[in-house]
Amino acid sequence: MEDDKDLPACNLSFLIGHLSFFILEIRRDLLYNAKITATAHYVPKKVVTNEDLEKFLDTSDEWIRTRTGIRQRHMVEKGVATSDLAAEASRRLLERRGISASEIDCIIVATVTPDMFFPSTACILQEKIGARNAWGFDLSGACTGFVYALAAAVQFVHSGAHRKVLVAGADVMTSILNPQDRNTYVLFGDGAGVALVEPTSPGEEGILDFILRSDGSGGKYLYMPGGGSLNPPTHETVQKKMHYVHQDGRAVFKYAVVGMAEVSLEILKRNNFCASDVVLYVPHQANSRIVDAAVERMGLDKSKVVLNIDRYANTTAATIPIGLSEACERNRVRRGDLVLMASFGAGFTWGSLLLRWAA
Ligand code: UT7
Questions:
Q1: pLDDT digits (tens, 9 = 90+) for 38-68
Q2: Is 1 a residue whose pLDDT tops 50?
């Protein structure tokens, strides 16, 4: 008797299970995939070489080149802010895509050097380019900021909420570097890169997958302690150089080598690709040795790797979009190519994003 009573309930839950599965599948089909339709970048004109740094720092071109791969970096003139670089890159992008700023729905600015605490750099950028129909926000993900921001943009497009999301990675790192600290000053540069995220057309794959990670226990290895609510600016915070980047380079290096390779390999594996399927690998550029280690672990052909750290140094959130934009300008990527991005930075934050180029 008991078995007979249970039977209809069993059938019902089986039915509901199947029904919700089908509804989910139908919803998935109705969702929009997202793709990058245009990229652009801008770096300030002023170039500072390693030899220039030798003049006032206890360092050498040889040390910087062999330990990091950096030969020079671009630096802003006084009075130029993150939004200025992002605005110039955005204007170039709008021209390339052939659209007006008023068509943009949303602006996400990944940065650790906003123009000011508030208003957001996204709002300042909106005003500078005239994107009067957009809303926007800043995203603090350090070197992984652009990958985080792209993943966020994908959600807006995926849900159908927006059709044109402008994603910027922009940083004026020289505004938070101690010019007397050879451990950090030689490593960074200023710049901005942007990408436009839009829905795919029928048959296009666009952005396929992403992996986003963070581990707050790594915060103590790379940080800027002053200026926030914990240590508001005072004479003391200035004297103690708390408004500058502090980094335990050796510790970050170890985690970065493992993290970059891990998310690069994992995203390929779970999408049933192998390294030889990748046409373009755009890694974060903090140190050419970190990139080399990741590339070696992946077994990737070096000719597929974007490496421009020699010219720009580490531009934090701008690094990946600058790399992507340059690769497009140099025709290194074509429709249908598999592109992989990966990054590691302060937080710790790290992540990867895989896409089929559909611009
Ligand atoms: O993008 C955000 C994430 N950041 C990173 O991924 C950065 C990860 N770390 C690194 O890229 C490397 O650790 C650095 C480039 C920061 C440093 O390279 P390293 O090979 O790990 O050098 P080190 O820190 O072990 O320092 C070696 C020596 C030290 O001298 P002693 O203690 O051996 O006498 C440093 O004081 O090199 C010295 N040094 C320098 N010498 C000349 C440090 N900076 C300089 C310099 N010029 N600029």
A1: 999 999 999 999 999 999 999 999 999 999 9
A2: no
pLDDT at position 183 is 97
What is the amino acid identity at position 127?
Answer: E
List, in order, residues 6 or more apart from 173 with CB less than 8 Å away. Answer: 113, 188, 189, 190, 245, 314, 315, 316
Task: Estimate to the nearest angstrom the gap between the alpha carbon of 223 and the chain centroid.
Answer: 18
Arithmetic mean of pLDDT, 315-337? 97
Q: Is 253 in the pocket of ligand 1 (CB under 6 A)?
A: yes
The answer to whether 50 is a known catalytic residue is: no
Q: Where are the domains of the chain?
A: 34-199, 207-356
Pocket residue to mutate for ligand 1, from 65, 183, 257, most atoms within 8 A of Cβ: 183
Q: Is the CB of 273 under 6 A from ligand 1?
A: no
d(CA 315, CA 97): 25
Pick the CATH number of 207-356 from 3.40.47.10, 3.40.570.10, 1.10.260.40, 2.70.180.20: 3.40.47.10
Provide CB contacts within 8 A for 320, sequence distance 6+: 146, 147, 169, 193, 282, 283, 284, 341, 343
With a 6 A CB cut-off, is 252 part of the ligand 1 pocket?
Answer: yes
Q: Which CATH class is domain 34-199?
A: alpha beta
Q: What is the DSSP letter of 56?
A: T
Is residue 143 part of the annotated active site? The answer reads yes
pTM to 2 decimal places: 0.92
Is 314 catalytic? The answer is yes
Output the pLDDT for position 32: 75
